[in-house]
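User: Predict the full complex structure for these chains.
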Amino acid sequence: MRAFISSVYLFLYAPIALVVLFSFNAGRSASEFTGFSTAWYGKALGNTFLVSALQNSLMIAFTSATLAAVFGTMAALGMERLAPRNRAIFDALFAAAIVVPGVVIGIATLVALVAVFSFVNPALSAIWPGDQPPQLGLGYGSIIAAHGLFSMALVTMIVKARIASLGRDIVEASSDLYATPLTTFRLIVLPQILPSILAGFLLAFTFSFDDFIIAFFVAGSKTTLPIYVFASIRRGVTPEINAIATLVLVASLLLILTARILMREKKTKSGE
Amino acid sequence: MPLIPLPRPSPRSYGEKGQAASSPLPIAPVGQGNRTGAASPLRPASGEKVAGRPDEGRKFEIDFNGFILMPAATNTKRNLVTAALVAPAAAWLMIFLVLPFIAMLVFAFGERAPEGGYQAAFTFAQFARLPTRAAAFWNTMVLAPVGALLCLLVAYPVAYYLAVKADPRYRLILVSLVVVPFWTSLLVRTYAWMYILGSRGIPNLLSMIGFEDVRLLNTPGAVLLGIVYGYLPLMIMPIYVSLEKLDRRLLEASADLGARPVSTFFGVTLPLSLPGVMTGVALVTILLLGEYLIPQLLGGGKVFFIGNALVDLFLQSRNWPFGSAIAVTLVAVVVVILMVAMRIAFRVAGTRQVDLV
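Assistant: Here is the predicted structure of the two-chain assembly.
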């Protein structure tokens, strides 16, 4: 049993370790380590296409995760107060946002946005007083919207679970002591749910930063880091991709570990 | 962290989740009495008028469902606040989930415009053409369930070890080590296998010891390997959660009644972990049905899934109505699998949440 478990952990981590190891390879070989070098990192970071793709990804991940954290938390608080039937509708829609495969979300968003643009853009041209009417198109906005959908569902689930695990006594006590609802929220509820909101934000950020398939459909002419890496892989495997992959791995690792620590703190505090 | 919300079989108060079940005492511990809603000397019951408070003379409302208490608020005001809280998410869900699905459904009954894209029509022609993509459907419908079952075979012993056998001191770390890969880029993790199975990886090593021209990449085996690698964490977590909740006293009872460990496992442990198994298999299968990256990178052009057909139809040949018809069919399959899985899971026991983080 122990041998099997160890080999599964090896199976999970050895391929990643190999990618990291060969990102430091001096030569181009994937099977022979010819010397330690950080040259490939220098090459990757000197690549302007890569750096701009990285900037796009960071901006999209930050915006969609922030929107998701705010709106998702609001939804989690609001859903507690909804009638059971309405709450079930929200639950079903959020579940759909998470369970429907990314490729379908990407296609559906693409199709809908293009259909909407085909109505809106001529209308904009007709009513615009100037010579160059603004034209809507795919780009950062559509990626943020599509990522925000999944992320919002994610944040809502996490924050809702946190709210469900809280005792109500302290909130009632606060209200008994004449705190206004807003004060109760600010002083009692918010501090208790804040770690889960942050964890949700970080997971949403990680999701958006790593997502390839949804962005692939709705990015239009814009490039995110996963789209750039995917295109490079198709041109051939090089240690430069290993270097980029290692940077992506380190970023995701930091984010997910922080999220886990935040959520663990929540668990020990509530005595679960 | 709950990720997969499944309807609970019986409506319970959200706030009291698991409290009674996890308490070893038959009587509620001191201090929990107040929460049941019975009037206490310190707090007025719902509807009672309270003297001396800002809301004196008005109806005092204790909101057991809501979290932000709105004492003395009229229902209208409370409803307005609730509506304001859920409005942004509701709008987002309508515009970027419901509307796109309607649009996709409309497109699926349309025609391809001569220059690509969509032309309004009402025809079943796109659905009639589905058999022309039978190979993609066949690959997906075979490799996705097979991949999910392979995942299950590897995942169950790991989940069992983590929940039952592992030293509690290291359990958290071991569980974290399983979860972390799930949240790191699937693209990078799949790339790692491209790298290992590619001509400069294992085949290169094999040629050194005399096995020339071994091809591993772009085979169904490589795709299955990538699937197990990519989705193993997602399979382990729900099974781990259901095994962790298992009441150890049942296992002791089974042993006391003379059952051998094997009989206990197949008679008690396995049936009680079935909801987790069902959740894991359903989740992994559903996500695999829409998989694109793994068959694209590890299967080359040879082992393609529905996801690959969809990318081709939307981004290369620009036949949007046909692509929409395939996507609608895919969603229908997903819904059927989900319903069957939930049916089975609820027949065995009510599970609601799956911990993924």
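DSSP finds eleven helices and no strands in chain A.
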